[in-house]
Amino acid sequence: MFPTAELVAGAIDVTTATELRGSITNYRRYALLDRGSYQVADVGQSNVLDRTMSRVLGLAGELLGRVVVAHEIRALRLEAGDYLLARHDRVHEDRPLELVLDLSPVPVAAEIQYRRLGQVFFRVPASPRSLAIVQRTPAITCNHTYISKLRLGVEVVRLVVLAR
Amino acid sequence: MRTWCAATPFPHLVIDDAAIDPEALLALLEEEGVARYEGDLFVFEASPPEPRSAELRRVREDFTAAYCEPLSRITGTQVTRIDMRAYAYRPGHYLLPHTDHQDGLARQLAYAYYLPSPDEPAGGELELFTVTDDATTSASLILPRPNRLSIFEVGDHSLHQVREVLAGLRLSLAGWFYP
Question: Chain A contacts of B162, Cβ < 8 Å?
Answer without folding.
Answer: none
